[in-house]
Amino acid sequence: MDAAERPDVSTLSYEQARDELIEVVHNLEAGSTSLEDALALWERGEALAARCQAWLDGARERLDAARARDGQSAGAAGGARAGGEPAREAALEDAAAGLGEEDA
Q1: Which of 9, 41, 48, 76 could cross-link with 21 by S-S, CB 3.0 to 4.6 Å?
Q2: The model scores a pTM over 0.90
Q3: What per-residue confidence (pLDDT) applies to 103?
Q4: 26, 48, 49: which is closest to 38 by C-alpha?
Q5: For the chain, what is the largest distance between any 2 Cα atoms, rounded to a whole number of angstroms?
Q6: How confident is the prediction for the chain on average, in pLDDT?
Q7: Residue 86: pLDDT above 80?
Q8: Could you write out the DSSP letters of every residue in 16-59?
Q9: Contact assessment for residue 41 and residue 33, using Cβ atoms and an 8 Å cutoff
């Protein structure tokens, strides 16, 4: 897919941006492109990496906000937390951490 066919980076989901970034890295590592094409790929890769980071930052903010709400709810109820809360928090942390991992 050439540059004219590629969607605007700002419209991509995290997964779309990540997958295209992986493709860009593979193409750059192959070293079979012209200098001009390599520069265009590098620029696209930088934009894709920034888009992925924005998605990850947003996910972290949402997780932090959910934790803050849960903390306020527990505080209002006398500080008692349900027995499943530590497991739920650990699962949320694992899910957020997994967002940044590259597929092998």
Answers
A1: 48
A2: no
A3: 46
A4: 26
A5: 65
A6: 82
A7: no
A8: HHHHHHHHHHHHHHHT-S-HHHHHHHHHHHHHHHHHHHHHHHHH
A9: yes
Whole-number Å distance between alpha carbons of 59 and 71? 18
CA-to-CA distance for 67 and 70, rounded, in angstroms?
5
CB atoms under 10 Å from CB of 45, counted, come to 18
For residues 8 and 22, the answer to whether their CB atoms sit within 8 Å is: no
Long-range contacts of 67-75 (CB under 8 A, 24+ apart): 67/92
User: For residue 12, what is the DSSP state?
Assistant: -
- In the block, residue with structure tokens 């200098």: 35
From residue 2, alpha-carbon distances to 44, 61, 88, 90 in Å are: 11, 34, 44, 42
Reference 99, options 44, 64, 57, 46; nearest CA is 57
**Tokens representing residue 80 in the block:** 């008692």
Q: What percent of the chain has pLDDT over 90?
A: 60
Report the alpha-carbon distance of residue 52 to residue 9 in Å, rounded.
10
Question: Given this model, what pLDDT does residue 93 score?
Answer: 67
Span 1-30, pLDDT tens digits: 566 688 999 999 999 999 999 999 999 999
